[in-house]
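Hi all, long-time lurker, first post. I run a small reading group and we've been trying to get comfortable going from sequence to structure in the token notation. Rather than ask abstract questions, I figured I'd post a concrete chain and ask someone more experienced to write out its structure so we can walk through it together at our next meeting. Sequence below, copied exactly:
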Amino acid sequence: MEQPQGFQVPESTQKVYKLLKSLYGLRQASQAWNALFHKFLKDHNLEVFEADPCLYCDHSSPKLMILIFVDDVFQGRTNPSKFMNIISDLQK
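-- Answer (accepted) --
Happy to help. Here is the structure in token form:
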């Protein structure tokens, strides 16, 4: 790895920069995305379903279930208001 053009420090040409977040396409990118999304869903009071760690449920009434598959999200709900609140928070 080399220092990018325009960001070179002459006295430390052998040093490189440490990434503070994962980049798309790296091996760690999917793990970092999953950890971030897991925290987001837990903050919205969704619980991980015991039988499948990719399924998040809100057991209150109305019910809401969110299934994560790779980088896709599937949802099932009886009332759209809670899900729409989650979507608006995701857009922020």
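A couple of things your group might point at:
The chain has a mean pLDDT of 81.
The longest helix spans residues 29-43.
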